[in-house]
Amino acid sequence: MVDDVPENGPNLDVSAWQLIDPRPIQQENPYTFFVPSDAEKAALVPGDLVKLMFRSLSPHNGTERMWVTFQGSDEGGAFGLLDNQPLDIPGLTAGDIIRFQDHHIVSVWEPKVDDISHEDRMFARCHVDPRILNGGARIGRIERRSAWRTWRPWRKDRWPDTGWYIYADDNTRPRSRDMRYVAVGVVLNQDDSILRYLSAAPGTRMIRDGDRFRDI
Q1: Nearest to 113 by CA among 39, 47, 46
Q2: What is the pLDDT along the chain (216 residues), one digit of tens a residue?
């Protein structure tokens, strides 16, 4: 415990910014917005880097994710030193002392407990009917084709292709050029009924049958 840590730092204008609570964001986007587990946060030691989300309260209302060097905790919560220089948050500068709570942490630089490999799988790409993404339809049919084996630079996308094509639950099928090419997790945020089938082999074709899917 440290008793002489300033509330945020000498002359730090906390009225110009605030920390964002990421929990509502994570609840709305569980397959694309990941936060460390309680066990991961409990494993922090002084010197570890944690990432927080800062919101400027200036007219621009900019939001920045920045690293903070964790220094310790006391009865008021955790504290550390801002490791980045903000781009556009007046009243905040690298080296400032930042006070925060465990729930403010959105990532850690070097995870000690959590297996984050599943996060990359959620960002692998698929083709999807845009009506599913805007909430206008639920998933009705899925098929897995051969995935692209090489990175296609015109896609400006470093994530691998899964080969999944995901269609709405009606008899229409959009043209290929109208399909959206997005992260699998983006689809699951809208409708995660296909989660259990995502490891199926290429050549799989399934149709919705109540709450499940069956081969066709």
Answers
A1: 39
A2: 333 444 554 445 556 899 999 999 999 999 999 999 999 999 999 999 999 999 998 776 689 999 999 999 999 999 999 999 999 888 899 999 999 999 999 999 999 999 888 888 899 999 999 999 998 899 999 999 998 755 555 455 678 899 999 999 887 778 878 899 999 999 999 999 999 999 999 999 999 999 899 999
Residue 36: how many CB atoms within 10 A of its CB? 22
pTM of the model: 0.80
Cβ-proximal residues to 93 (8 Å cutoff; 6+ apart), any chain: 82, 85, 86
Residues 6+ apart with CB under 8 A from 161: 124, 125, 126, 147, 148
Q: Which two tokens stand for residue 147?
A: 């995935």
How far is Cα 195 from Cα 121, in angstroms, rounded to an integer? Answer: 12
